[in-house]
User: Fold this.
Amino acid sequence: MNRNYRTKRCFAFGLIAALLWGTMLSGWVWAAPHPDRSGRDKSFQRPVAVRPDMRRSDMRQVQDSRYHHDRSYPARGQVIRALPRDHRVVVHGGARYYFSGGAWYRPQGSHFVVAMPPIGLFLPFLPPFYTTVWLGGVPYYYADEVYYAHRGDGYVVVEPPKEEVSQAPPPADQMFIYPRQGQSEKQKADDRYACHQWAVSQTGFDPTQPPGASPESQKIEKRADYQRAMSACLDGRGYTVK
Assistant:
């Protein structure tokens, strides 16, 4: 009877060991990486950084200190599933771009990626925070490595200026402009640019362009006409010009 008991025990231990070995083997087979049709091992593919609940505060930020702008923006290339609630839609070239807080997003499948806007994109607004820089008497608005210029009734994304820009407004031939109605710096820049365009159209003289071959007396006369036109335009918009 002892022999039968020992035989049964050995059989039971052998059965348990076989079951355990089969379970481990099946686990290894299940966990092993399977190559896709291209023969690449999917386990080594980098996952897409997507979080359904990702918010702006959760995204990796980059500090933009150019021109003392000193603002933080989401790092480009990050992918999210849901756009910020305050986003605005801009269509360019048949494609949709999304804007929020100074950052741009474009669709990537069913998600969205932080991206640069294309040159030539027109928008009726400026970022909530921007830095004004000047080139040849013309203002450019800068934010998150993107330059915007005034065009008609809105703004357009432009190439970065190739020449050195200035953060100080141009002297405009010693023309000093003082707002009488508490206009903001943005409004002042917009009004100045609009009056500049109008004065050029009225006088044919553009102080931001290289001087032509006309006699110096004519240049002085045209410059004076331009300044009078600028003063009249700015005065009508609520500024004192000296």
Summary: The helical segments are 2-31, 185-203, 216-236. The first strand starts at residue 61 and ends at 64. The first helix runs from residue 2 to 31.
